[in-house]
Amino acid sequence: MNYSIDKLHIYTLNVGFARHDGDWNWKNVRSPFSRLYLVVEGRAQIALPSGIYDLTPGHLYYIPAFTTHSYICDSLFSHYYIHIYENNLEAESMLDNWDFPVEADAAEYDIELFKRLTYINPFLKLPMSNPEIYDNHKTLVNNIDMNMRRPFHDKVESRGILFILLSRFLKMATPKVETHDDRIRSIISHIRSKLYENHDIDQLAKFACMSKDHFIRIFRKETGETPNAYITKKKMEAAELLLITSEDSIKSVAMSLGYNDCSYFNKIFKKYSGITPQQYRKTHKEGISPKTIL
User: DSSP assignment of 58-77, as one string?
Assistant: First the structure.
């Protein structure tokens, strides 16, 4: 895992301690930030696309950004939480490069790290545990802004604690795209770092020194997706983040991701997310459940 730490730009969006008594049961949660939990006591479960996981005291749990998941809790349950935002709109996403384990053993002093991060960031505690209350445009923008305005020494300490806690998972992480072809690996890095470009498959094939058909075949073999499908998925994830964290018009968001035809962007976004960009922004700006719109 030979990456530069200088490219990992992560921030604490929310941090705190929560105690529940059978009331942690939110369904189909999907956010543009990652979640990191340290379980203190009690029992609960998280339902992820890969299965249902029991949350055990003394263990850490990681949920990547843009992962649909649900919480299951019918009794006492206490945990520390951190919501992690990666600022990667103008660069390749580092966290997105890896598949992380869901669970990791917590070190003896990790609880002190959570306590310290909570202590120096009291303004980042969640007002309520309901994602529809905090997972919205206003809260995200405000928390990102507060991160930017904090004293420099607090930024350094907070970032250092995040690095330490994430390292528990990084040492067991594997590359998300298990490609053994350096040409495809290079193309993937190029795509991720230049999502604002309108990538042409013929040109990408030339970069990889392959014919178009051979490039598509090898790309799919290495990644499980066609180049077009992969590019679209990454552009739509970036679109979600821009719609939530910026005030840019839908047209500006589309153009920033290489879509000169706004109506085509709307069509692709709806096919990907189930709702239009305008509806997606409204759900997060006003805290409306997508089910209410659909």
Answer: TEEEEE-TT--BEEE-SSEE
pLDDT at 294 over 50: no
- Please give the DSSP secondary-structure letter assigned to residue 199: -
- 196-210, 234-248, 251-265, range with the lowest pLDDT: 234-248
Read off the pLDDT band of 288 (50, 70, 90).
very low
- Tell me the C-alpha to C-alpha distance, in Å, between residue 164 and each of 9, 106, 111: 14, 11, 12
SS3 content of the chain, % helix, strand, coil (to 5): 45, 20, 35
Measured between alpha carbons, how far is 68 from 47 in angstroms, rounded to an integer? 9
Quote the tokens at residue 177: 């795209």
Confidence of residue 22 (pLDDT cuts 50, 70, 90): very high
Give dist(CA 133, CA 26) in Å, integer: 12
Per the listing, tokens 């002190």 go with 112
Tokens of 178: 């298990």
Whether the CB-CB separation of 291 and 27 falls below 8 Å is answered with: no
Question: Strands 59-63, 34-42: parallel, antiparallel or unpaired by DSSP?
Answer: antiparallel
